[in-house]
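Quick one, tokens below:
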């Protein structure tokens, strides 16, 4: 009975050695596989982080370019508004000058006409102009004092023509001003649409950059987890290595010793 008890104890010890050896081998294999997998995951994390950093840099460059374009468009719009204001001010000055000149000419014309009327100076109708030959000598006779009465008609007519010219100038200036304002409004509308488009692009880029930054932070978090898990696996391997190395290394010798003892 004592012999059987010893033999059973040796058998149990052999079984325990087998289980311990197989468990160590399985754990070493599992740790090796896990560490290899985690190493690959960390490398993927690094690649994703590098890719995200490059994407962020590209979007930042595009954003800086877009901001510069927005500033250029804003400067152009400001320049257009300044130029339009200057042109409008010039138009108002010219129009007011023309109106003042018309008012002055009309007053002068009315005063002159009244003077002619009160002094009974005849306002003759201007006669037809006849062509004078280039080779024809000028008349040597001098006009008499009374011949100047026809000049009244010429002065009044000249004033009327000046007034008409100034009125036409105001009319044409007003038309040009309306056309210039319409052209300015069209140009400003195009510039505003372009600026709005660039502003929207800038907003989209900022959202994309923020999203990529979040993804980058997440990749760093995952990399940290993978590195911690890898460290934990290696620490566990270092913890069980002495016992496992001993049982694996001495397994055959212990088995032979038990077999001899059982025999």
């Amino acid at each position: 009975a004592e012999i059987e008890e010893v033999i059973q104890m040796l058998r149990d010890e052999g079984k325990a050695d087998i289980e311990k050896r197989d468990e160590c081998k399985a754990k070493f294999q599992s740790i090796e596989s896990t560490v290899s997998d985690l190493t690959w995951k960390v490398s993927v994390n690094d690649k994703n982080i590098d890719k995200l950093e490059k994407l962020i840099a590209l979007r930042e460059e595009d954003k800086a370019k877009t901001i510069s374009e927005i500033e250029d468009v804003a400067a152009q719009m400001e320049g257009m508004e300044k130029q339009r204001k200057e042109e409008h001010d010039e138009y108002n000055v010219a129009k007011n000058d023309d109106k003042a000149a018309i008012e002055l000419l009309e007053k002068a014309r009315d005063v002159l006409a009244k003077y002619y009327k009160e002094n009974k100076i005849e306002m003759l109708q201007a006669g037809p102009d006849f062509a004078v030959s280039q080779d024809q000598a000028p008349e040597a006779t001098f006009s008499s004092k009374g011949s100047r009465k026809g000049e009244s008609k010429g002065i009044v007519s000249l004033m009327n023509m000046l007034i008409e010219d100034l009125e036409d100038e105001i009319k044409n200036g007003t038309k040009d001003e309306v056309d210039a304002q319409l052209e300015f409004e069209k140009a400003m509308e195009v510039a505003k649409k372009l600026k709005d488009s660039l502003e929207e692009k800038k907003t989209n880029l900022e959202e994309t950059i923020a999203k990529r930054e979040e993804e980058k932070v997440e990749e760093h978090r995952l990399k940290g987890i993978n590195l911690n898990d890898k460290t934990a696996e290696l620490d566990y391997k270092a913890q069980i290595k002495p016992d496992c190395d001993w049982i694996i290394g001495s397994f055959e010798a212990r088995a032979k010793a038990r077999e001899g003892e059982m025999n």
